Amino acid sequence: MRIRIKAKKKMGSFSMALNADISGDRIGIFGNSGSGKSTIVNLISGLLQPDSGEIFLDDKALFSSQQGINLPPEQRRIAIVFQQAMLFPHLSVKSNLLYGYKRCRAEHRHIKPEALIDLLKLKPLLERGVNRLSGGEKQRVALGRAVLANPRLLLMDEPLSALDNTLRFQIIPYLRSVSEEFNIPYLFISHSITEMQLMADQILVINNGEVLEETTPEQLARNRMAHSQNGYLNLLRLADPVDQNGLFSYRWGENLLLLSTGNISGESLFELSSREIILFKKHPEAISARNLLECTVAEMFSSDGRVGVVLSAYGKKLVAEIVRAAADELSITPGSTLFAAIKASSFRKLR
Amino acid sequence: MLLTQEDITAIWLSLQVALTATAISLPFGFAAAWLLVFKTLRGKVILEVLVNLPLTLPPVVIGYFLLLLLGKNGWLGKMLAETGIQLIFTWKAAVIASAVVGFPLLVRSIRLGMESIDRQLIAASRSLGASWYDTLLTIILPLSLRGIVSGSSLMFARSLGEFGATIIVAGNMPGRTQTIPLAIYDYTSSPSSTTMALSLCLVSVVISVAVLLLHEMLDKQLDRSTAS
């Protein structure tokens, strides 16, 4: 999928001047609140008309002031998953799910409702009224409803920000698997770097109604390391631990990691802040941290006075954050060998 | 309770007038509310003032304006007379008077209902492939239903009590244009008819209570259907 936008829009004191040409099936739009992310959703979906310019989805003009084209939203085949699920309160779950499907032309109906209902585990909810659903269930129904409209593009406008942390990371696999299973490209809007890392391949960074840069989630996380509340967040997928004196022992590459939290079986997702990793030049003799990893420095980057050290250990990578003075004192350069200490309690279970 | 044949006719006529006025006004009230809530129009303030004007004007003034408009020499009355239609001093004039007087109440209630609809529900509907009129019928209309029910009840009740405008455009002809309030007015002008007046007052109270109860029931029903 390719999206080309060159559009201007003025709304009161806020003005937007977008200029972007981005390709990919998993595109992220990142920006702080008030940066204009939701305006982009409205412009692409046709809920808002630009003052001038053009918007193309692949080769199809959705809007062109020059050619006098402005497709109404219902003809764009771009479905939205909103921040709040926005389910129709007077309809059952089933009727909500089929709302877009029924309005979709027969030749576009390539997604079978049964298959999607199974994938999203919605079968037990079908006859319920939407007011009797939990937050996570609502968002799953909203996702199903959008997908069943058989859109060419799915716009996800901060679909996780109304959910608590546990639910948020439970919904992400659904978002990804639905898009992959049914081959629907998406635009994922969020102000969370972690969500970007989990959902997007390319990212447009928006600020003050303008595209600041086009980047990757990894690059974005590295650039924002110094300013993020918890630094760079390493995401680790670990599965099937073994109990070791009350701690969870997970296999991580060719090594084991000891964590104070975990799930007895199945895969879990953990977050480890770059600031929770302590680096040693030599092997420390005795240390309370339960994980001591011997690693080599693969590369280094700087983020506003802080140094990001990309560590390579047991076939895996981790980013540690140190201040410039520490890097100089320890003479850390790419290729150096270091020991990284991580407390078992430093890992935060996301899912 | 004492009711003459003429009183019974007046009761039926009142119900007929109130029901017809409400039914005729509903589509216009819905359209006016929709315009006021969802559309950015030039001169919206004028529409707003026009819709609400009957609420602030004395009904007698409205009646007089209607008489000027629909009377034999009135702008509309003349045109209608040419096609053989006469409205003034018929029950139809009472319907028009009730419709005009009750219209703001209807619009205000529907409007309140529409204003409580989250705009993103409409955006969701449009992005799921529904055209604007499809969205109007499948999202806005059902979600305004409580406003519609409450506006209709208010308007129906207001029409039952309509006096000032009705007496001017429809007159007070027993058996033809006399509604409950007009009949009570007649009785109160003769001291010997107090019982008759009270009987009709009682009928008025019964009908009003029934309308309010019906409204409450429907409202609860609608509340339940969205909560389930």
Index terms:
heterodimer; A: 351 residues; alpha+beta; Rossmann fold; OB fold (Dihydrolipoamide Acetyltransferase, E2P); six-stranded mixed β-sheet; five-stranded antiparallel β-sheet; 22 strands; B: 228 residues; mainly alpha; MetI-like fold; 11 helices
Architecture overview:
The complex is a heterodimer of chains A (351) and B (228). By secondary structure, chain A is of the alpha+beta class. Chain A folds into 2 domains: 2-216, P-loop containing nucleotide triphosphate hydrolases (Rossmann fold, 3-Layer(aba) Sandwich); 233-349, RNA polymerase II/Efflux pump adaptor protein, barrel-sandwich hybrid domain (OB fold (Dihydrolipoamide Acetyltransferase, E2P)). Helices cover 23% and strands 38% of the residues of chain A. Chain A has helices spanning 37-45, 73-76, 93-102, 113-119, 135-148, 165-182, 193-199, 217-223, 324-329, and strands spanning 2-11, 14-23, 26-30, 52-57, 60-64, 69-70, 78-81, 153-157, 186-190, 202-207, 210-215, 233-239, 242-244, 247-252, 255-259, 267-273, 277-280, 291-303, 306-313, 316-323, 337-342, 347-349. Chain A has a 6-stranded mixed beta sheet with strand order 7-8-9-3-10-11, sandwiched between helices. In chain A, helix 6 (165-182) links the parallel strand 8 (153-157) and strand 9 (186-190). In chain A, helix 3 packs parallel to helix 5 (135-148), helix 5 (135-148) runs parallel beside helix 6 and helix 7 (193-199) packs antiparallel against helix 8. The longest helix of chain A is centred in the middle third of the chain and has 18 residues, at 165-182. In chain A, 42% of the residues are buried. The mean pLDDT of chain A is 92. Chain B has helices at 5-38, 44-56, 59-70, 75-82, 91-115, 119-127, 132-143, 145-160, 164-169, 180-188, 194-227. Chain B has one domain: MetI-like fold (Orthogonal Bundle). Chain B has 11 helices and no strands. The mean pLDDT of chain B is 92. In chain B, helix 1 (5-38) packs antiparallel against helix 8 (145-160), helix 2 (44-56) crosses helix 5 and helix 10 (180-188) packs antiparallel against helix 11 (194-227). By secondary structure, chain B is an all-alpha fold.
